[in-house]
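Example 482, ligand adenosine-5'-diphosphate.
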Amino acid sequence: MKWWRTASFYFRINVVIVSSVLLLSVALSGVVFVHNRTLLEKELDKRGAEIGNSIAAMGSESIILDERFVLHEIAAKARRGSDDIRYIMIVDYAGEILAHTFGDGFPAGLPLELPPGLPRSNAATGEPGGEAAYAVTRYRSNEGPFREVVVPVERGAVGYVRVGLTEQDMRHILEQNIKNFSLITLVVCLLAAVVATRLAYRIVHPIDQLAQAAGQIRQGNYGVRIPPDDQAEVGRLASAFNDMAATLTRKDDENEHLLTALRDKDARHVRLLQKVLSVQEDERKRISRELHDEAGQSLASLLAYLQLLMAGEVTSSQREAIGQLKSLVVEILGGLRKMAVELRPPALDDLGLVPAMAKYVDGFALQRDLTAIFAPEDDNPELDPAVALALYRILQESLTNVARHAEAKAVRVELAAEGGDIALTVSDDGRGFDAAALPAGEESLGIYGMMERAELLGGTFQMTSRPGQGTTVRVALPRRLG
Ligand SMILES: Nc1ncnc2c1ncn2[C@@H]1O[C@H](COP(=O)(O)OP(=O)(O)O)[C@@H](O)[C@H]1O
Ligand SMILES: [Mg+2]
């Protein structure tokens, strides 16, 4: 019944109401038809019996005297003027026809036997008959259906009067009945269809309006409202919908406010972060320079003094002490240089990103005793200095993580152009970790820092890792900043 469920509401309500009306009127007309027919049949039989009785009263003597001509006159007179009487026959007690009104032969199918139930003359049958005042037989002849009413004369001892009636009039009345009924049914059905359609409209129209308004809300138009309806259920629905739309409007305004505030806050954070990073870089640069220029120079002078001291008059124990002092100073100087380079690699400014990275990766491999491969696609990619610096810092953080957490034997660093972007990939074969469950907060500041740097420059950052599967950090940044 899928078609029924998908058919329009108008169609369905019309089918239900009109077919109910139709069913009711068919049932009613059936009952009325049967009732009317019974009534009319009784009327017809009564009329037949009356005519039969009056003929019996008039002709009883003539039957006994076998005055056939008189009987014929009586029958013909009784029939005259009555269209529904097809024939009258007068028979004697044995059933022999004494007179009849058939001018031109008997109709085929005429019953010859008298119907049971009538009083019978013992002389005719040898056995007693019934007590009925008259009996009715229905039969079909070549002229159509007939009803024959048989009235006994002197309780059947003298004879019988047979009155044949046609059912034509009765049928005509019944047909007229049915016609009237059909006409009324048609009118009522039409009225019902009009009422059903109006009713359906009263139900469907507000639902249509509601659906349209819901569609508007789906498209974000929260200002839409439904005109109030005076029907109880529909009215409640409309006002509930309007309340909902009003709430949505209010919430939307609130969200808009919150979003604006959030955007402002985010923009401030971005500016702050940029500032922090640039201040950090400046600070690193300054400290690096100071370490190199000031502290480095002082230590270099100290070394020169120690050299001078050693060249002078010193005891052997003093020489040994100075020697130890000298190697200590050399060690501190080396540490200072390393720190200065870590803070601000001169190679990045002087030579460019690829040599600076190569140097850093080599130094890392040497220090940590693992295999590190640097595979740049291009020796001198054209990059914005901020992008180069970010890539360098991300490489530093990634390799520091490899050293601190990965327990890796090998690490591979790739640098390749991808359309307008440059992509840095650092992958190790270490123990890996569940990157999907990266804890927020203090524990993951390194990773979030890389993420932030990438986002600040309009790039993307991905970290793929699973326990036992190594770790890959991939960052793609636009080569030029707009
Ligand atoms: N290459 C790596 N191999 C294995 N685990 C790593 C690697 N890089 C990061 N991790 C894991 O991610 C965590 C967060 O890293 P990070 O944000 O850099 O913080 P931190 O290095 O200060 O611990 C680390 O504690 C470590 O568990
Ligand atoms: Mg880290």
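Summary: The chain is about 60% helix and 15% strand.
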